[in-house]
Design brief:
By secondary structure, the chain is α+β, with helices and mostly antiparallel strands. It has six helices and 30 strands.
């Protein structure tokens, strides 16, 4: 009779199986406990019971009134999310009932499972119809300036600190920011200045320290009846030192276009500094250093800027609507203006600079043809017909400029062309957009293309040229008659002197 003996696994294998069963039981029990805990919290915990504690904590931290207008909604698993509904943050003492910030809805969330490994992954922060009211009261205090621990007004870490983010904040990641239906109101009671941004939308991708986040911002800006439709597309980087960096960013405001914008934005003692700052700007290059004094009265903006190889025609047309000057320009300027001064910011510009424009033209006037037309009339001839598209071409136009309270003055304008040479001085009001220039024109070559050769009366003399009026429709006057009279008088005197010399010589010969 054949008998079979039962096979027993080796002791090591039995130990491993027993260990795996225990591990699975332990994990299952842990998951069960988590589920039970979540259920218990969901049943017995209501965040609305802690609304008073939440608002008090915010008020103690910021020194401002804070209110949650609606019921707090929340969820716990698989994502921890909270919806505050409407909120209201006060402006502080001295600003009445006007809040600094209101919103119809604020919601955010975070993933639960990464918390088990000590990671904090915040989801997209959503802001529904937020309104920011920036107010400077009659005493010059600003509601956006928060008091620090010593009670001094400032911009927190930016006011004297290095602006570095706390370690716990530097380790956070945010799924992005989605802001829709936003509005900004700015009012300065010391100057009467007003600014309005409405609507404002912001779409910012996932944010992590040192990582690139795609950015799209759209805003309609209105000030003194003038509107700017602005749009920004680019990449934003939040750095651990508290600075923001824009990279490969395009900015458009009405017809103004800036491409390949790169900028580092960081806190300063008085507000913010944007440096280094570079961009492609109307076929040329731009570099600048901008300081914005958000903590100072009148909100001064200091600038040190340079443009190189810029197409002046489309640039001036986009900024000022002035379309009469073209050419490739190099411009340097250093100065400041006040963004909040009770009037147009251009009226507060104080700056010094210089410019050099090559291979350009003044559209709307042909100075050489004007000279020929005036000469023809004085000589009783038929003047040449006017140009359909008059223009004065030049090879170079240079000068230095001093701007004081929005009026730009120069005393060394120099323009050279194959036909003419201009030298002179004058001024332009940047706010009123008016001109007042006195120039001297020298004919240095043939006027063949304008109706003939220059007469002898104009050789070696300067023709006064006066330019006055508005940028769009200036008045241009040439005083050729006076020049001819002066030159003819000089010729008569020379002839009399010649005859006197001849008589003198004859008398001397007679008596000798």
């Amino acid at each position: 009779m054949i008998s079979f003996k039962r096979y027993d696994p080796c002791p090591a294998y039995q130990q491993e199986s027993r260990f795996m069963r225990v591990l699975f039981i332990a994990l299952g029990s842990l998951i069960g406990l988590i589920v039970v805990a979540i259920a218990a919290v969901a049943l017995f915990f209501d965040p609305n019971d802690y609304r008073d504690q939440i608002t008090t904590a915010v008020e103690d931290e910021l020194g401002r009134s804070f209110a949650i207008d609606d019921e707090i909604g929340w969820s716990l698993f698989p994502r921890l999310a909270i919806d505050l509904g409407g909120i209201r943050l006060g402006s502080g003492d001295g600003f009445g009932d006007e809040p600094l910030l209101t919103a119809e809805g604020v919601s955010a969330g975070m993933a639960v499972m990464p918390l088990l490994s000590g990671e904090v992954e915040l989801e997209t922060l959503r802001l529904d119809a937020p309104t920011i009211r920036l107010i400077r009261n009659e005493t010059g205090d600003a509601n956006w300036a928060f008091a620090d621990a010593e009670g001094q007004s400032g911009d927190n870490d930016g006011a004297g600190g290095d602006g570095a983010l706390p370690d716990w904040l530097a380790g956070l990641s945010l799924g992005g920011i989605d802001l829709s239906g936003g509005r900004i109101r700015y009012a300065d009671a010391t100057t009467g200045d007003r600014l309005r941004v409405d609507p404002l939308t912001l779409d910012l991708g996932a944010i992590a320290i040192g990582q690139t986040a795609p950015l799209t911002l759209e805003a309609m800006i209105e000030r003194d009846g003038e509107q700017w439709d602005a749009r920004i597309n680019g990449d934003l980087i939040v750095r651990s030192d508290g600075t923001l960096s824009l990279r490969e960013t395009d900015l458009r405001a009405n017809d103004l276009a800036i491409t390949e914008l790169g900028a580092d934005i960081g806190p300063s003692a008085d507000g913010w500094r944007i440096h280094p700052l570079s961009a492609r700007f109307y076929e040329g290059e731009y570099g600048g250093d901008i300081r914005l004094g958000t903590q100072q009265n009148r909100m001064p903006l200091a600038f040190n800027e340079g443009l190189n190889g810029v197409a002046m025609g489309p640039l001036l047309a986009a900024i000022t609507g002035f379309e009469r000057l073209t050419g490739t320009a190099g411009i340097n300027a250093e100065g400041e203006l006040a963004l909040s001064g009770g009037g147009p910011p251009l009226a507060t510009v104080n700056a010094d600079g210089d410019f050099s424009i090559r291979d350009g033209a003044f559209k709307g006037v042909n100075i050489a043809r004007l000279i020929r037309q005036a000469l023809a009339r004085l000589q009783g001839e038929t003047p040449p017909p006017a140009d359909e598209t008059p223009s004065t071409d030049f090879t170079s136009l240079t000068g230095s400029v001093a701007v004081r309270d929005g009026v730009a003055r120069t005393d060394d304008i120099a323009m050279d062309s194959p036909v003419l040479r201009l030298r002179g001085e004058g001024q332009s009001d940047l706010v009123e957009q008016t001109l007042d220039f006195s120039l001297d024109v020298d004919v240095v070559s043939s006027l063949q293309g304008q109706g003939g050769q220059p007469p002898e009366a104009l050789r070696g003399v300067s023709i006064p040229l006066q330019i006055e009026g508005s940028w769009r429709d200036p008045s241009i006057r040439l005083d050729i008659a006076r020049v001819i009279q002066q030159s003819q008088g000089t010729q008569i005197r020379e002839r009399v002197e010649e005859e006197v010399d001849k008589v003198r010589d004859r008398l001397e010969d007679l008596f000798n």
